[in-house]
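User: Predict the structure for this protein chain, please.
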Amino acid sequence: MNSRLDKKKYQYIIMWERLGISLTKVLLILSLLTIAMQSIIAIDIDILPQNITMELEGKSVVENYHYESKGQIKITADSKADIAFLKVFINGEMKERGDNAYIEIDVRNNDIIEIDGIDSEKYININIEDTSENIIFPQKGMRYRIEGNIVVLGRVKLK
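Assistant: Here is the predicted structure, written as structure tokens:
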């Protein structure tokens, strides 16, 4: 009777050892596959098959992994003297500007542009004189009126 129990116990132990060996092999294969896929991604992202987003958006999705696009906006006022009263804020931070007859700011996608005209006693008309070609919003030719307040030009949208 003792030998029958020993035989069952031995079979039970052998079954769990085989299961452990099988699980170890599967985990080793999965680990090697993961390392291989990560190295392919690190070497060249263009090797990966295109998904629906890349087909709809084009190469811009892949390019955004490598750099962040920037743009420039040139702002002028109707009077050159009025531009001295204006302060420009991008994402709540005041930007330094020279003593030019215009304000030129460097922006990134989703930056919020605000113009502070509180120091002015009269209204000031400002114009978006020029933008770089990759800027969708604000558009060239847009006009804003500042009457001693802060005007939010909006959130920058880039291509």
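Strands lie at 70-77, 87-90, 93-95, 102-108, 112-116, 124-131, 135-137, 143-146, 150-155, 157-158.
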